[in-house]
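Lab meeting prep.
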Amino acid sequence: MTRLLFTGTGRCGTGYVAAALNACGVRCGHEQVYTLQTALRDTPPVWGHWQAESSWLAAPRLWNSEVKALHLVRHPLAYVRSALEIGLFHDARRSAYTDAIYRHMPAIERWKDPANRALAMWAWWNGCIGAYTTDYYRIEDFGLATLAEVLHSIGHGRSDLPAIWAKVANDPGARNLKTAEKPQRLESVATSLFQPKLLDEARKLSAHYGYAGW
């Protein structure tokens, strides 16, 4: 079976995709192969028994990846809202995860406020991934047909896929992810928070992924 790697910005559905693949019998790690250690110390990924991996921490190492990489993207405002909700870019809540981000993209930390840091993360991290792979999936559109396509690409067919997907799609985590994409949630993030040049950059990139009009 061909090994598969999903990566994105984080807060973009990597855990959701890992759960879907595991439900289909594909041993898929979620930050089990590309871990904090690989991001912080440049230690090599160890695949072991894993057939697939879904980890935003893989992005800085795509230039040296020997597996098929697929890009997960999420609406920029949904990403920013999620990052702000967990305090990812607040100095008072700095963690090993933000250390990993700033290690590879120190310019993100130079923004003084969490909202611009989050939007810069969305634009620049996705831009980095896009330089190494042209295959991307919008998490908002990830459904039964997408899962079937992914499984087919690695030679893993399932006749009971509709039943499996029904369970995955009804998982509380999946429902929460889909609820977060509703327009009223996206509109709760005011674009006036962002520096105009950065906002323009993010809008141009997001249009490439089909996110227009925000």
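Slide two material, second protein:
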Amino acid sequence: MSPANPAYVMDSYALLAYLNGEAGQTRVQEILSLALANEAAVYLGMINLGEILYIVERRRGLTQAQRVLSLIENLPLTICGTTRALMLDAAHIKAGHSISYADAFVAALAQSENATVVTGDPEFNFVTELVQIEWLQ
């Protein structure tokens, strides 16, 4: 991947849209295809992976959540653990903005990777001055 290639952080909204065949699925697929071709970097935070899994388990059960985990782990993206620095950045973002704590981790990860957040979640309207957003439609 060259330095000019884009970087993206997937919000849980984006991956759930992809997994559920909802609006935005096509764009998420395009971004994942870029990653597969080493033409983009795609990141997912561990906190947001957990968010996806609890949503799927609540709606469809543990077995389906386990299937989703396997599917996500095989996508061309990097799952990022939570470091002390990322936690501090997310806490700082949450303290000053009206977004969920999980979304604060997305914003912090996007800042640390100089990446664009991919989402359709309107909460990200509160952090447009902090990170670039690609809105799914």
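Talking points for slide two:
The helical segments are 12-20, 25-36, 46-60, 62-73, 84-96, 101-113.
Residues 7-135 form a domain with the Rossmann fold fold (CATH 3.40.50.1010).
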